[in-house]
Structure formats: C-alpha cells, structure tokens
Amino acid sequence: MTVSGEVLDGVSATTLWTLHNRGTEAKRSDGVIRDPWAVTLFDAISYDFRKFGKPNQSHGLRAVAFDAATSDYLRTHPKASVVALAEGLQTSFWRLQRAGVADQLTWYSVDLQPVMALREKLLPSDERIVPLAQSALDLSWMDRIDDSHGVFITAEGLLMYLEPDDALGLIRACATRFPGGHMMFDSIPHWFSRRTLTGLKLSDRYVTPPMPFALSAEEALALAGRIPGVRGARDIAMPPGRGLWKVASHSRMDHIGFLRRNRPSITVLEF
C-alpha cells in the first residue's frame, strides 16, 4: 500500500522529516538503528522527502536513546503504561517488542487525527495499543491512562514546538497527575530555537516550523527544583554514532561548558 504524505502539514509534517532520517539510517548496513517498520513506512509514503535535505543520524540516535530509557523502566515496571505524546510516525513500540520488554505493557499513542489515520493505514493493530486522536495539550488523554502499574511518558520531538508556557504546563500537569511516573523529552538549545524563529531552511523547498521552547541541559535538570512534583531529573547521553557524531557524543566534550550549554539534550524527569 502506498499513501500520500501530503495529508500532513505544519508541525505534523515534521514527523516525515524524522521518518526520513530514521528510515534512511535504518536502511544502512552500518546504521545506528535497526527499525524495520520505519523502513516500511518510509517506502510506503509518497512524499518529496528530499526537501528535508541530506539525511543524518540525529533522529535515529535520539530514538535509540528513548528506547534505552524506556526499556530500563519497563524492566522494573513490566505492566506499565507508556504514553507516547505526539507520537507521529514513530515505531518505538515494535522496537521495544523486539527487545522483549513490551509483552505486558499498555501503549497509548497520542496525536492529531491526520497522523493517527496514517498510522492506522500503515502500521499493524495490536491489543496493547490504545490510539488517542487528540492534541497532547488536550489533557483529557490523562483520564484514559491506567497508572496502577507505573507510567512512562515520552515527548519525543514535541516540546520544542510548543510555547514555553504550554511546554512547562504540560510537564507540570503530568507531574501532578502521575506521581511515581517518569517523563522523557528532548530539548533544543537556545541558539537553535532563535534560528528557527527567523526561518530555518533545510532546503530551498522547506522551512521548519518555529521552535520557541528551548532548554539547556542544566536548565532541564533544574526543573526538579522548579516544578512541583518533579522530584528528580537525569540527563541522558546521546548514543555514539558514526564519524563526527561519535566525536560529538564523547563524554569529554560535555566537560566543556560552552559545548554543554549549546548542545541538544534529552532528559528523564521522575515524579
């Protein structure tokens, strides 16, 4: 089956950008991620993916980092609920299933209706997956979550597209509603956010949507003392990639203050 990706626009269309990077990486023999379903989606969606520019390792490495932290939580909370906010065309569920940690979980997939319709057409249904066609900012999704065995919330590639008050409000609401749960998200640095606000071109045919919310690694960790209910925060290192990506992820680089302040970050909050 082949479907058009043109049904997505605005921020929703950025899931095609991340799919371009992840799917292309998964096709490589030396790719940083093994993701058969990403390859299937990439091949099944008719779209001008080349307008996103040359593919790179960034989103594949980010997905690997999210998988590792989610897996760690599921090993100690095998019946937990995993809530994938603004899931887009991520295929994390099947990667975790292949890793053997998804047998008993309940997976809540939250995104807008056009994205959920694509997922329904192209990805297999599973009784463990609960689709919720709505915005992550429509907090009624919280009423659907079974929190009796733990909750792990992912916001992969989401918060940067929100206004700061909305992003922090979402974290605050999750901390209040799911004590004992965890929330994982990625952040862009302030300099990158400023570039998107003036129009960041990936090619002569594509400008990214604005990304108004930014946090340095230290600012993300400081949320533990800033937002009620957030009792701990951990910075998650980006996995090593190939070439310059491997150099950039070296732990020694993080001891250089300028580089640490200006790199993307991934954070796990404990409620």
UniProtKB/TrEMBL annotation:
One of its GO terms (biological process) is methylation. Its EC number is 2.1.1.-. InterPro entries: Ppm1/Ppm2/Tcmp, SAM-dependent_MTases_sf, TcmP-like. Pfam families: LCM (PF04072). Keywords: Methyltransferase, Transferase. The keyword Transferase applies. It is an enzyme of class 2 (transferase). One of its GO terms (molecular function) is methyltransferase activity. Gene3D superfamilies: Vaccinia Virus protein VP39. This is Class I SAM-dependent methyltransferase. The lineage of its organism: Bacteria, Bacillati, Actinomycetota, Actinomycetes, Mycobacteriales.
